[in-house]
């Protein structure tokens, strides 16, 4: 765990409007921040199934066939259905634009996006190998995550509280006084920064097999506190 010193905000620098809402007793405003660096143990990746055919029906059938094959390959590898999200199909016409002539309809493109959550990071590369097949030639992105996010958020929150308390005590001591207690706490939303891997074409999956390890994601939390001073 690593604490990051944040900027101190003293009430002496508040605007007149803010001062009107400030407490009428000696006080100190401090922001605390905590960060936890985590080694990911799970991942999420998405692929696009894209098929172009002469008719919308044939494009849809081709896309559905590719998706069915992909889901079957994942099932063989032990991926649970609840960890797969296959988006709705999108059909768009495709035109040719001859010079000086009206656009000509040449077919339809069917697109489906599938997102897969990988609970065991060690199996990620195997899933990617299975993903790249008929109808799927590109992996959009790979996002490394942690299965213990709630636990690490709590740890980051405690670090933020500790950071605020330590800074308040130090500042109060420096001005010849001490902290009497907490008057107000403003909690900020926590922030989880997953590791985003680069997109991959069909022939590049093998080259990234070792790149999922030794990555770190950052989970941070922050709090603003108004302390009473003696």
From TrEMBL:
<keyword id="KW-0732">Signal</keyword>
<dbReference type="Pfam" id="PF04402">
    <property type="entry name" value="SIMPL"/>
</dbReference>
<dbReference type="InterPro" id="IPR052022">
    <property type="entry name" value="26kDa_periplasmic_antigen"/>
</dbReference>
<protein>
    <recommendedName>
        <fullName>Oxidative stress defense protein</fullName>
    </recommendedName>
</protein>
<feature type="signal peptide">
    <location>
        <begin position="1"/>
        <end position="20"/>
    </location>
</feature>
<dbReference type="InterPro" id="IPR007497">
    <property type="entry name" value="SIMPL/DUF541"/>
</dbReference>
<dbReference type="GO" id="GO:0006974">
    <property type="term" value="P:DNA damage response"/>
</dbReference>
